[in-house]
Amino acid sequence: MAHIIVVGNEKGGSGKSTTCMHVATALARMGHRVGALDLDLRQRSFGRYIENRRAYARRKGLDLPTPEYRELPEIDPATLAEGENVMDRRLAAAMAEIEPNSDFIIIDCPGSHTRLSQMAHSLADTLITPMNDSFIDFDLLARIDPESGRVTGPSIYSEMVWNARQARARANLPPIDWLVLRNRLGSQQMHNKRKVGGALVQLSKRIGFRVAPGFSERVIFRELFPRGLTLLDLRDLGVERLNLSNIAARQELRDLMAELKLPGVTVDF
């Protein structure tokens, strides 16, 4: 069975699609068969990223390792069983189509609470939650006391992950390995960075996730999207000498892939 990696966060602008594309492409470059689904049916940032990649590769005559992307199929409501949710059927049909030919499936969730997102979280073997490194985004995970800074309780999103874990336990499935990524770590505001880091460590012990640094804020990510490219593609384009920012970004990706601890994956780039 494919190992399912879900990338979820109910706040927009946290780098979910960038994370999805870089993890998926890194796995494909390492020789793994990678399937991809985008459950944000309106924005489709991950889906458009892959479409941009295929179009660019065709124009330039390049053979770029690319995840196999699938749209959710349309379902005739008349075929649903009594009480069956159409979104459940659409996701199940997409998974049934893509799983037999995949070692890994990357699922990008919308930045909102939806039925599809709930279902995807219950499928996750690995859950990646990118967050911008601030207390605004920390609110996604937990509520904190404004005076003491202590965590007072989980957020709605954390409760959804808890419910997904419970559903997997009832189905005798392995527990979710939950990784929270601290994206857009800046060099400034060190005091705030330490406070966010301390709160995350405290919360991780309470609700069971691992914390890892993600991607820093870099112009290169915005430049790569229109062509569907990732950091690992630069040398295919004839860029023999990477600048210091690009080298640092590749190291961030290498560290992330190692931190994920995915089965059968040896990070070799």
From TrEMBL:
SUPFAM superfamilies: P-loop containing nucleoside triphosphate hydrolases
InterPro entries linked to this entry: DNA_Partitioning_ATPase (IPR050678), MipZ (IPR015223), P-loop_NTPase (IPR027417)
Domain of life assignment: Bacteria
A Pfam family assignment: MipZ
PANTHER family attached to this UniProt entry: COBQ_COBB_MIND_PARA NUCLEOTIDE BINDING DOMAIN-CONTAINING PROTEIN, P-LOOP CONTAINING NUCLEOSIDE TRIPHOSPHATE HYDROLASE
Listed name of the protein: Chromosome partitioning protein
